[in-house]
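Quick illustration, no need to memorize.
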Amino acid sequence: MKNLFFFLMFKVNGIFLFAQSSIIQTFEYTDSLFKVGQIHYLELHFGFDHCGLLNDSVTNKTLYELGSFLKNHPNIVISIDCHTDSRGVDTLNLKLSEKRSIEIYRVLNQKFGLDTTQIKTNGFGEKMPIVPDSYINQLNWTKEDQELLHRLNRRIIARIITIRK
């Protein structure tokens, strides 16, 4: 099993910012030791205010690796957790993140014919930001810098929630 130390570090206005640290287990497992709670960040892209995956995401290596992993490990149940940034109306962001999670579920099932009970979907909207708006708004960030900070909050996570016997 590969363990990667993951953190988000970026430079804004000459300041280095650290947004999050965690251990991520990749989907390239060489043994059968899995743990509930293991996570993997998915680099998938959606159009602005849309739930359909952009073409680069449908053919994305990460999506293929996740689908292959689930096909080869039918005892693993994951949750696809989608988050948005805080721009827009909270209720619409929540619905959008739920629809995006369902879209990933649909694409994975369509491409890999997975057991429909193997993937759960969650949309959290803007409820769990990595970078709070209070931080984004407290300094004189450029528009580019603000976009980078908001981008950290727009994320998709695949999380192992159950290992069936």
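The beta strands are 3-12, 15-25, 39-42, 76-83, 119-125, 156-163.
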